[in-house]
Amino acid sequence: MKTLTVSVVTPDGPILEDSYEMVSCKAQSGELGILPNHIPVVAPLVISAVRLKRNNETIRVAISGGFIEVSNNQVTILAQSAESPSDIDVQRARKAKERAERRLKAKQDDIDFRRAEYALKRALNRLDIVEKR
Ligand code: ATP
Fold it and tell me: Which residues form the ATP synthase F1 complex delta/epsilon subunit N-terminal domain (predicted)?
Protein backbone atom coordinates (compact mmCIF):
# COMPACT_ATOMS: atom_id res chain seq x y z
CA MET A 1 0.00 0.00 0.00
CA LYS A 2 1.18 3.50 -0.80
CA THR A 3 2.04 5.70 2.15
CA LEU A 4 2.69 9.33 2.88
CA THR A 5 6.05 10.60 4.09
CA VAL A 6 5.24 13.07 6.84
CA SER A 7 7.62 15.71 8.22
CA VAL A 8 6.72 18.01 11.09
CA VAL A 9 9.14 20.92 11.27
CA THR A 10 9.41 23.83 13.74
CA PRO A 11 11.93 26.67 14.13
CA ASP A 12 13.74 24.37 16.60
CA GLY A 13 14.17 21.74 13.89
CA PRO A 14 12.39 18.58 12.74
CA ILE A 15 10.06 17.00 15.32
CA LEU A 16 9.05 13.93 13.36
CA GLU A 17 9.64 12.26 10.00
CA ASP A 18 8.00 8.94 9.21
CA SER A 19 5.55 7.11 6.92
CA TYR A 20 1.80 7.09 7.60
CA GLU A 21 -1.35 5.92 5.83
CA MET A 22 -3.39 9.02 6.52
CA VAL A 23 -2.96 12.55 7.90
CA SER A 24 -5.90 14.50 9.34
CA CYS A 25 -5.56 18.10 10.35
CA LYS A 26 -7.55 21.25 10.92
CA ALA A 27 -7.11 23.93 8.29
CA GLN A 28 -8.57 27.42 8.69
CA SER A 29 -11.13 26.36 6.07
CA GLY A 30 -12.08 23.13 7.91
CA GLU A 31 -10.95 19.53 8.45
CA LEU A 32 -8.50 18.11 5.91
CA GLY A 33 -8.00 14.39 5.39
CA ILE A 34 -4.96 13.44 3.32
CA LEU A 35 -4.57 9.98 1.82
CA PRO A 36 -1.85 8.79 -0.62
CA ASN A 37 -2.12 10.33 -4.11
CA HIS A 38 -3.83 13.45 -2.78
CA ILE A 39 -3.68 16.47 -5.07
CA PRO A 40 -1.11 19.15 -4.12
CA VAL A 41 -2.29 21.40 -1.30
CA VAL A 42 -0.96 24.32 0.72
CA ALA A 43 -3.21 25.41 3.59
CA PRO A 44 -2.92 27.38 6.83
CA LEU A 45 -3.65 25.36 9.97
CA VAL A 46 -5.20 26.40 13.28
CA ILE A 47 -4.08 25.49 16.83
CA SER A 48 -5.08 21.81 16.88
CA ALA A 49 -4.01 18.17 16.81
CA VAL A 50 -2.51 16.67 13.68
CA ARG A 51 -3.57 13.01 13.56
CA LEU A 52 -1.24 10.49 11.93
CA LYS A 53 -2.66 7.03 11.18
CA ARG A 54 -0.79 3.80 10.60
CA ASN A 55 -1.70 0.12 11.29
CA ASN A 56 -4.95 1.05 13.05
CA GLU A 57 -3.08 3.37 15.40
CA THR A 58 -3.40 7.12 15.58
CA ILE A 59 -0.83 9.42 17.06
CA ARG A 60 -1.61 13.04 17.77
CA VAL A 61 0.80 15.95 17.57
CA ALA A 62 -0.10 19.30 19.13
CA ILE A 63 0.60 22.18 16.76
CA SER A 64 0.20 25.90 17.35
CA GLY A 65 -1.01 26.75 13.86
CA GLY A 66 1.26 26.82 10.81
CA PHE A 67 0.97 25.39 7.33
CA ILE A 68 0.54 22.05 5.62
CA GLU A 69 2.00 21.35 2.21
CA VAL A 70 1.14 18.19 0.29
CA SER A 71 2.88 17.19 -2.91
CA ASN A 72 3.91 13.82 -4.39
CA ASN A 73 2.92 11.88 -1.23
CA GLN A 74 5.16 14.12 0.88
CA VAL A 75 3.32 15.96 3.66
CA THR A 76 5.19 18.81 5.35
CA ILE A 77 3.76 20.52 8.40
CA LEU A 78 5.51 23.74 9.33
CA ALA A 79 4.48 24.97 12.76
CA GLN A 80 5.69 27.54 15.29
CA SER A 81 5.61 24.71 17.87
CA ALA A 82 4.78 20.99 17.72
CA GLU A 83 4.81 18.38 20.46
CA SER A 84 4.07 14.66 20.64
CA PRO A 85 2.07 13.65 23.75
CA SER A 86 5.18 12.32 25.51
CA ASP A 87 6.90 15.71 25.09
CA ILE A 88 4.05 17.69 26.65
CA ASP A 89 4.67 18.98 30.16
CA VAL A 90 1.20 18.82 31.72
CA GLN A 91 2.04 21.07 34.67
CA ARG A 92 3.37 23.73 32.34
CA ALA A 93 0.25 23.56 30.17
CA ARG A 94 -2.00 23.79 33.25
CA LYS A 95 -0.11 26.85 34.45
CA ALA A 96 -0.30 28.43 31.00
CA LYS A 97 -4.07 27.75 30.97
CA GLU A 98 -4.55 29.40 34.39
CA ARG A 99 -2.40 32.38 33.43
CA ALA A 100 -4.35 32.89 30.21
CA GLU A 101 -7.70 32.57 32.01
CA ARG A 102 -6.60 35.18 34.57
CA ARG A 103 -5.57 37.54 31.77
CA LEU A 104 -8.86 37.05 29.95
CA LYS A 105 -10.78 38.02 33.09
CA ALA A 106 -8.71 41.17 33.63
CA LYS A 107 -9.71 44.30 31.75
CA GLN A 108 -7.11 44.99 29.11
CA ASP A 109 -6.60 46.14 25.56
CA ASP A 110 -7.51 44.12 22.49
CA ILE A 111 -4.00 42.94 21.66
CA ASP A 112 -3.37 41.44 25.09
CA PHE A 113 -6.83 39.88 25.08
CA ARG A 114 -6.10 38.22 21.73
CA ARG A 115 -2.73 37.01 22.98
CA ALA A 116 -4.34 35.47 26.05
CA GLU A 117 -7.00 33.81 23.88
CA TYR A 118 -4.32 32.16 21.74
CA ALA A 119 -2.30 31.14 24.81
CA LEU A 120 -5.44 29.53 26.24
CA LYS A 121 -6.09 27.66 22.98
CA ARG A 122 -2.51 26.35 22.93
CA ALA A 123 -2.73 25.16 26.54
CA LEU A 124 -6.14 23.50 26.06
CA ASN A 125 -4.92 21.81 22.88
CA ARG A 126 -1.88 20.37 24.72
CA LEU A 127 -4.00 19.14 27.64
CA ASP A 128 -6.54 17.59 25.27
CA ILE A 129 -3.84 15.71 23.38
CA VAL A 130 -2.34 14.31 26.59
CA GLU A 131 -5.83 13.19 27.71
CA LYS A 132 -6.50 11.36 24.41
CA ARG A 133 -3.13 9.67 24.31
P1 ATP B 1 4.20 28.74 27.93
O2 ATP B 1 3.47 29.97 28.40
O3 ATP B 1 4.15 27.62 28.91
O4 ATP B 1 5.59 29.03 27.39
P5 ATP B 1 3.21 28.84 25.23
O6 ATP B 1 1.93 28.31 24.63
O7 ATP B 1 3.33 30.32 25.26
O8 ATP B 1 3.36 28.17 26.68
P9 ATP B 1 4.74 28.34 22.89
O10 ATP B 1 5.13 29.76 22.57
O11 ATP B 1 3.62 27.73 22.10
O12 ATP B 1 4.44 28.23 24.46
O13 ATP B 1 6.00 27.39 22.74
C14 ATP B 1 7.33 27.77 23.10
C15 ATP B 1 8.17 26.51 23.17
O16 ATP B 1 7.83 25.79 24.35
C17 ATP B 1 7.94 25.54 22.02
O18 ATP B 1 9.17 24.91 21.73
C19 ATP B 1 6.93 24.54 22.57
O20 ATP B 1 7.07 23.27 21.95
C21 ATP B 1 7.33 24.49 24.04
N22 ATP B 1 6.19 24.24 24.94
C23 ATP B 1 5.24 25.11 25.31
N24 ATP B 1 4.40 24.57 26.21
C25 ATP B 1 4.83 23.30 26.40
C26 ATP B 1 4.36 22.21 27.20
N27 ATP B 1 3.29 22.31 28.00
N28 ATP B 1 5.06 21.07 27.16
C29 ATP B 1 6.15 20.94 26.38
N30 ATP B 1 6.63 21.92 25.60
C31 ATP B 1 5.98 23.09 25.60
Answer: 4-82
